[in-house]
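Appendix B, example 12.
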Amino acid sequence: MSISRADRSRFGSLWFTMDRTLLTAILSLFAVGLVVSLAATPAVADRKGFEPFHFVERHIIFALVGVVVMFTFASLSAREIRRLAGMMFVGCLGLMGYVLWAGPEINGARRWLIVAGFSMQPSELAKPAFIILTAWLLAERQRKPDMPTGPVMIALFVPFVFMLRLQPDIGQTMLVVAVWGALLVLGGLSLAWPLAAGALAAAILGFAYATQTYVQKRIDAFLSGDVAANMQTERAMRSFSDGGFLGLGPGAGSIKTDLPDAHTDFILAVIAEEYGAVSCLALLGLYAFIVFRAMARGIAREDLYVRFSLFGLALLFGGQALINMAVNVGLLPAKGMTLPLISAGGSSMIAVSITLGLILSFARRTPDTRPLRHVPFVVTPTAGELADEGRRE
């Protein structure tokens, strides 16, 4: 199939303006997830009483749906994304409230909504929408200093974090606060803002530590250095030494039969044991490439809303991957956070696909895109850029 440059359809425009290098890296990550699913999930399915390829089939289905969702969001314009983000965020906040009231309790948390036999986590879908709205408000603050963007950002941030805390979902709460604080710094706000966000995160973590036994146990075990107190973390760390540089070979590992969360939170340990540390480093490099490529595209754009959105979405995507990897190697206490596009989980797969679709949309070539090799590493706008923004108004 060939597409003419004269094709003015939404798909034709998407194809000729898309960052195909970034797209190739993302599709490679989808492919890695399918391969790892074949290695990690049959043993888990057998232990849970399902057919051997139950989780593999689900992963394939959600990956295909995720690719369609990603291209759909990638075809949207920046203005369409902003409008959709507002509706998504409000809708997801409402669903988060409903889940707290009527959702099933799983492992002491209420985060999931059961729809047609599938579970979905509204907070996962709210994250990219929250980042988009924050980025737009920061851009508007630069263009229209008299606009009350500060109170609006707080009005979005506080209920979202409050809902995450009530679920409870400490890991996602920390990630959202960290990305929000980073965006405020990039947007040129006073350091008092991110410091306040950090203080709030510390207060939330302290309250969780004081009131929730499982949080206290995880943090105490982590601070004491006693990895044996957390069997899953201890076994995950051992998989790296068992696998060595090149691994034991596909299907030869035993961690997937030892850990109940080997197909989700500790999927990196499965990769380490069967494919080796070299494969883990290659996977880390793939995540890093996607993040830095997205940031480079953000730097190349003069539109501040697009620039901040790309930075925020890249930090959200990369932060989740980094936290999951850090847990697997014992650098952070266990948080129940999946490895994007690799771990099993439909809700996470769709949410990450939305995030990557938004990154692809904002990274598309437009008349205001400067060549990447000529772009200085600056995030906040210069005085000349602000003057140009004012003249365009």
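The first strand starts at residue 113 and ends at 115. The chain has 15 helices and two strands.
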